[in-house]
């Protein structure tokens, strides 16, 4: 279902504004004639009363749930309680506070890991809850599925115009480069950069190199979010992907070239592969009228330039 929701003059709360997605949304919203609201760092989104009080005082018209506890395969595997509890609380508190403060529109952001591990690829929206999840990130996935369901339930019970978007693997400025918790793309950029600086002969890559992943530049995601706020009002979540699918080995090759590292890739079989393939079917979003613009090679080159320009990466 398409609509024409105007952002003109609206008070738009971007939660998670210090994260990669939140900061991309704020950059993108500069091109809209609206007022961006952010909460102070001291506000703990897991604490219901703090969130409720902030909403009562700041009365946003539009809420974007870009706040989340996020992390790569290792972080998810070792901190299951944090990934489940924090994300459930963030989603519940923001969605309920938005209703109490009579926000007109809410966009909830999740991730492609909500889909069953063995679902048919490319993953259609309808594949949600049709089979068991990938074990390495089911904690995060369950919380994100709960967020989608909250939006649907609030839409049905209260008539709230709450929608959900599920992006594929993201990268771009402001990514997390901590090797223990990061996703593969920033991890390999940093590892290749450091390997080159040290003059190493090899670049270690976790797993077999065979898993397939799709990558979307965060500026494309931010643009898709603004598009969905304006043009989508429906119960079903919407996939946001790029169609840029590569194996981890191919990704490592692209990164090697971008960084100018000339050594060999070494695949570490003792590290997990995770889900074998994760490609989104974006037919729905394309039919609404949006598609990604930033190609993987171009996006990685820009991200590496930004990585090199910042001085600390911890
Ligand atoms: P996922 O997409 O949820 O599985 O999360 P990741 O981005 O962390 O991992 C994607 C794939 O990249 C997995 O197969 C990892 O084993 C692989 N990979 C290869 N090298 C690395 C690395 O240095 N860090 C991470 N996080 N993943 C890596």
Automatic annotation (TrEMBL):
- This protein's source sits in the domain of life called Bacteria
Q: Which residues form a coiled coil?
A: none
One annotated GO molecular function: NADP+ binding
- Binding-site residues for substrate, renumbered to this chain: 191, 206, 213, 273
Pathway entry: Nucleotide-sugar biosynthesis; GDP-L-fucose biosynthesis via de novo pathway; GDP-L-fucose from GDP-alpha-D-mannose: step 2/2
- Chemical reaction(s) catalysed: GDP-beta-L-fucose + NADP(+) = GDP-4-dehydro-alpha-D-rhamnose + NADPH + H(+)
Its BP terms in the Gene Ontology are: 'de novo' GDP-L-fucose biosynthetic process
Q: Does the keyword Isomerase apply?
A: yes
NAD-dependent epimerase/dehydratase domain span: 12-241
Give the Enzyme Commission number. 1.1.1.271
Active-site residues per Swiss-Prot or TrEMBL entry: 140 (proton donor/acceptor)
Q: Give the UniProt family note.
A: Belongs to the NAD(P)-dependent epimerase/dehydratase family. Fucose synthase subfamily.
Primary role: Catalyzes the two-step NADP-dependent conversion of GDP-4-dehydro-6-deoxy-D-mannose to GDP-fucose, involving an epimerase and a reductase reaction.
Q: Which PANTHER family match?
A: GDP-L-FUCOSE SYNTHASE
User: What name does the UniProt record give this protein?
Assistant: GDP-L-fucose synthase
Organism for this UniProt entry: Qipengyuania atrilutea
């Amino acid at each position: 279902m398409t609509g024409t929701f105007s952002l003109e003059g609206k008070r738009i709360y971007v939660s998670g504004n210090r994260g990669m997605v939140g900061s991309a949304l704020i950059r993108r919203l500069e091109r809209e004639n609206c007022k961006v609201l952010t909460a102070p760092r001291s506000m703990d989104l897991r604490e219901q009363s703090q969130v409720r009080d902030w909403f009562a005082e700041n009365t946003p018209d539009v809420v974007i749930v870009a706040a989340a506890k996020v992390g790569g395969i290792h972080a998810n595997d070792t901190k299951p309680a944090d990934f489940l509890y924090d994300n459930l609380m963030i989603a519940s508190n923001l969605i309920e506070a938005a209703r109490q403060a009579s926000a007109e529109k809410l966009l909830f952001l999740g991730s492609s890991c909500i889909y069953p591990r063995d679902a048919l690829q490319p993953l259609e929206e309808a594949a949600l809850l049709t089979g068991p999840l990938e074990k390495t990130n089911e904690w995060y996935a369950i919380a994100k599925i709960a967020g989608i369901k909250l939006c649907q339930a609030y839409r049905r019970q209260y008539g709230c115009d709450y929608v959900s978007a599920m992006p594929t693997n993201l990268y771009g400025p402001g990514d997390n480069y901590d090797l223990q918790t990061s996703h593969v793309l920033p991890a390999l950029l940093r590892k290749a950069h450091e390997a080159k600086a040290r003059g190493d002969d090899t670049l270690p890559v976790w797993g077999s190199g065979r898993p397939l992943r799709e990558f979307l530049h965060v500026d494309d995601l931010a643009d898709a979010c603004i598009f969905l706020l304006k043009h989508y009002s429906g119960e079903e979540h919407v996939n946001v992907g790029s169609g840029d699918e590569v194996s981890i080995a191919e990704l490592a090759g692209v990164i090697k070239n971008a960084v100018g590292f000339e050594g060999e890739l070494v695949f570490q079989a003792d590290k997990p592969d995770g889900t074998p393939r994760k490609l989104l079917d974006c037919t729905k979003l394309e039919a609404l009228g949006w598609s990604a613009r930033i190609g993987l090679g171009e996006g990685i080159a820009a991200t590496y330039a930004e990585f090199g320009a910042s001085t600390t990466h911890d």
